[in-house]
## 1
Amino acid sequence: MTEEQYKPVSYSKTTISELMIPAYANFGGKIHGGLLLSLMDKVAYACASKHSGGYCVTVSIEGVEFLQPVEVGEMVTMFASVNYVGKTSMLIGIKVIAENFLEGTVKHTNTSYFTMVCKGADGKPRQVPALSLESRDDVRRFLEAIKRKQLRQSYKEELDNAKTNLAVDTEIDKLVNERCKVATGFLI
Ligand SMILES: CC(C)(COP(=O)(O)OP(=O)(O)OC[C@H]1O[C@@H](n2cnc3c(N)ncnc32)[C@H](O)[C@@H]1OP(=O)(O)O)[C@@H](O)C(=O)NCCC(=O)NCCS
């Protein structure tokens, strides 16, 4: 049996910064959410690829809520680190801040979690190194990731169950206070 290989969280911590230029703005003059997502995907890849030493793919994204808009002229910085590793997957935590140099302000726009899976040359998921936790924050994030994983699993089961058991005919009354109207004769 081969000995377990460990890499510290600090080894793969990755930061990227990018100035938000007018070309990145949407029709409302704010920065496109899609552009920020693309930058997050990039930093998640760099972090996961460094930890695993391999090619990685994005499997799921959690916690993408843009609580404040990002403006043209602000400097966006993304801090990524491996919060948790499974066998072939890694949970990458990404904290996003936007700095306004003219006003001297910094805002925390969101913290999101990307699950990345490392793939081998055969295209199949490949084992990644274990994680060496060197600080209280490292331990807290790892424990939080375990909770996140358990909650995701039970949420998924509940959702699947709710979908399977959804009975349109008996539950249609729940629409009474919703902002929708049902076309006459739709049940035919
Ligand atoms: C994700 C993928 C690699 C899973 O492949 P698979 O053959 O089903 O492999 P497994 O079931 O062994 O899963 C591999 C790992 O992914 C994790 N995983 C699978 N689906 C997941 C999901 N929906 N959310 C979080 N993790 C997931 C598993 O838990 C497992 O982690 P572990 O090894 O640490 O325990 C495969 O579905 C894939 O290649 N998807 C496309 C990814 C891609 O192209 N991304 C770019 C999007 S544009």
Note: The beta strands are 6-8, 14-19, 55-62, 75-85, 89-100, 105-119, 130-132.
## 2
Amino acid sequence: MADYYDILGVPRDASKDDIKRAYKKLARQYHPDVAQDKTEAERRFGQINEAYSVLADDEKRAYYDRYGSVPSAAQEGADFGGFGGFPFGDLFDTLFDFGGGGRRQRQARPSRGSDLRMGIRISLVDAFQGASREVELTSDVACAQCEGRRTLEADGFQNCPQCAGMGQVQQIINTPFGRLTQVAPCAACRGQGRQLVKPCPGCRGAGRTPQKRTLSVKIPPGMDSGDKIRMRGEGEPGTLGGPPGDLYLVVEVAEHEEFRRQGDDLSRSLKITFTDAALGASVEVPLLTGEKETLKIPGGTQNGTVFRFKGKGMPRFQRSGRGDLHVEVEVMVPTKLNSKQKKLLKEFAEAGSQEAEPQSFFEKIRDAIFG
Ligand SMILES: [Zn+2]
Ligand SMILES: [Zn+2]
């Protein structure tokens, strides 16, 4: 999105009059009724109006200067408190109102703050055991000076002159069904019915200030990538005494060098010697947490064979029990043999009758040693 100041061609410290003058000049130039290139003019005209609607309004401008953008009503819904938000609670009377009797003084009402989302990266070991973490974040909190009221003065707000404090405006429109009165939220005050005239100096009227915070987070065992930890009340502040939103920490479990995770199961590979594979042996399998499990390998075990340890996988998140651990053996063929070993293996090969044994394993060994 282009910068609003650039769109209007004014410096960042431009006065309200400067902004108004720049707007009028550009609006005349790009008005779709007078411009040559209608499509381009419409686009520019829209941008100019959008820029002006923000920069001409003290509180919107303050917000824009601080954050570089202004949330639209559509994006933020009723939760966005800075400008009061669009009055969704009264959607019905903002639609077609035949009698025009739905017009009444509206009250700005408390709204809940927006939820926040933040990623948190943990190791597979943390996911296995659970962990405690300190999370640092910068997010808005209610302004300490005005406590979110946006002004320090009793007369900090005045009724919107555009809608006389009603928060909505009526338009007569002609439709195939006859003339209808359309009641729409007032654009000047965003349906609030009031305008901030004496903004709090602490927050320039935004009612909130960014603050760096540190939160202690408990990560329960068994969490997987995409799981969320909800921290109640740690989101954006509400407005007019509304409750704050929540903070959602979205977990991302980092890859592990040795262990892979599939749901609640873990798998790892384990190197074994070709003699252990051929003759059978007891070997130690290191677990994720550093403990060891004993694996009995039967004689004649093939490369790639998977052994399963039931209940030695990941803890099941918010359920009892654990997944399984799959151990895939990788048979190591020696690359350096001394003359005695070579002699023995030659004798072994010549002893013949390996047909009954699975073929590929011994072929591999032969190829590796003699090939
Ligand atoms: Zn304030
Ligand atoms: Zn208004």
Note: The chain has four domains: 1-56, 57-253, 256-332, 335-371.
